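Throughout our pipeline, every protein is held as a single compact record rather than as scattered files. The record that follows is passed on verbatim for readers who wish to inspect the format.
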Amino acid sequence: MANKLWFLKNKANGELLSPWHDIETEPSNGEENYVTGVIEMPGNTSSKLECSKKDMHNPITQDVVINKNTKAYMLRTFKNPPTFNYGFIPRTWSDNDLGGDSDPIDLVDLGWNNMKQTLAVSDYLVLGTLGLVDQGEQDIKILAIEATEAKELGIKTMKDFERL
């Protein structure tokens, strides 16, 4: 079973970086209500991609599941791929000791531009949060729109987004 890994590299010197630990949470625009987000899974992607917690430099990799019948490992895919970009907020953690899923906090890019690349790093305007329970664990999703798209469309709040 081949599993592709996507690594983040420093453009200046080619060194490998961790998208989870080496990128600042604070947005480059320095504005309030914005965060930095890393895209794991571009919209309309059927492969379930995620930040690897166990591999050095935390590359993005395809999630693996065990086939219930054959007990063989399989790369996880979606029957109906999400139409939105999906990722996480660097340097965050949903603590398992507090009921979390032991992952970085998720980011759902609600924008219309779903042509992002895996490991795209952008500033995002936070529009809201969604709290779920997934397999008995708290799973928080930050609902956001990429900063440039938000500004181009005049979106400053969830009401602005809903209006469009």
In short: The two ends are 43 Å apart (CA to CA). The chain has a mean pLDDT of 91. The CA atoms of residues 42 and 115 lie 6 Å apart. Residues 147-153 form the longest helix (7 residues).
